[in-house]
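User: Can you write out an input/output pair for a complex, sequences first and structure second?

Assistant: Here is one pair. Inputs:
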Amino acid sequence: MPVLDKDTDEKPSWADLVEEGEEDHIPPISEVLNGDTKIVTEFKRNEDGKLLKIVRTFKIEKKQVSKTIAKRKLWRKFGDAKSDGPGPNPSTTTVTDDVFLILTSNKEDLQQDNDDPLKKLGQSTQKIVQCRICKGDHWTTKCPYKDQLEVIQAQVKEDEAAGAAGAAPGAPGAAPGAGEQPAASKTGKYIAPGLREGAANRRGESMPRSQRDESATIRVTNLSEDTRESDLQELFRPFGPISRIFLAKDKITNQSKGFAFINFVHREDAARAIQSVQGFGYDHLILNVEWAKPSTTQQ
DNA sequence: GATGAGCGG
């Protein structure tokens, strides 16, 4: 900018004045290129006023520098480095190794990511999920053997409790980590106590179904769009304790879909609710209430 | 006229 240039030319900064005063007879820093070596010669005055010549030799690695970056060498320096020559001043600047950024969104990388799973699947379009129980291609929670697993877990828990109480003579695996190995079959595969030969079938004895009890769930349809969960709560509370209310809503718009599920604690209460609220006029609409079918994901 | 959502790995 011409205006700035004028200013700086006419009124050098205090720092520059001091520098100039000190440097009156000091030759400027110079760089000489000699093949792949750069020799930088600098003169300095030490504390005693003696002139020192500092020669630094740099080995230049041949690199491809883009034109845009090379142009920066021509930029006018400012501040304390105003009088420095082009390029980095070795007395104030350390040039380190290049740091390369690894861009993970690289197209090639993405391509590779796509390739790998395909290889794994052996060109099939199979789902990638694998059941931990039976190795089938469904989630573990959807496994047909899941109930059995529940029994195993329940049995293990029971045994742990029995062992901790110090009772139950002959109960194996008193506590995990007690140095005792769990009982193993001839094949070395672990078999839960409840499933071992001679064990009584105690399926479902101690553990309640992990799934929500849907036997006391009713479905309410023909709700007006501005019905809220709290409204349903008020409407059905008189019949008995409610464990859950689900009002179907559009995930994105949050708009009510006009039907809801009410989980009562007691099935009798649910039955009475159906009896009473069925055909009930609510918000200019007539409600429809009936037993809910188990949800799609219920087993 | 509509039978929920989302969690894992």
